Amino acid sequence: MTTPKILLVDDTKLFLELEKSFLKLSPVQVLSASSGEEALEIARKEHPDLIFMDITMPGMGGIACCSALKADSMLRAIPVIMVSSHGKEEDLEMCRKAGCNDYLTKPIDRRLFLEKARFFLDAIERRDVRVTCETLVTFTANGVSRSGVSADLSYGGIYIAADREIDEKQAVTVEIALPGALSTPITAQGIVAWKNGEQKRKKPSLPTGFGVEFTSITEPDNEAIRSFVAGNRANG
Known about the structure:
It contains six helices and twelve strands. It is α/β, with parallel strands linked by helices. The chain has two domains: 5-120, Rossmann fold (3-Layer(aba) Sandwich), CATH 3.40.50.2300; 130-235, Thrombin, subunit H. The strands form two sheets. The chain has a six-stranded antiparallel β-barrel with strand order 7-8-9-12-11-10. The chain has a five-stranded parallel β-sheet with strand order 2-1-3-4-5, with helices on both faces. Helix 2 (36-46) runs parallel beside helix 3 and helix 3 (62-71) runs parallel beside helix 4 (89-98). The model has no long low-confidence stretch (mean pLDDT 88).
């Protein structure tokens, strides 16, 4: 079976790396381009199965590129999901006129990104493997560091039990002391994806706290999490 290809198009490296991280668990080949011109060249050569494309880029922007793709009889069947920085109605209308199949708004929500990708490609991973993990976690937001205790851990994120309020979409740095690990704590950058408040609980089974989705992590630390999750999944 041929491995599906996904083309990510954005002139900002941070967003490209973030989108790539969302697809780490999926058996797909990820291609990337930083301009509309480069995206067209790659599309003609590789014929990706799905394209995520930013609207605003130097040179040929996403709208013009999408129009060119949909005007090409060899490429028009490729689903194109446009990514807007502002989500303005006029931007979305231009996307529709260009022939896009769907659209997203920045900041990109990982779950929504995967949900939209999965609509077009069955190969997209449905969920992270998650295991119980009770260990000390230090999280830093806006330059202030606090402590909490993790409740569970996955390849893509962690739930932290803490009594301090924190906003959703808040950027955080977490340091995790994996149980049984002899090395120094692992470190990851992330965003607060959701929270369990004292007054409003999304998941009553979990204590007060918040879920963090990892956006950046070194390969050694990522491998340490994978080994821990795989080992505890097998033992469970």
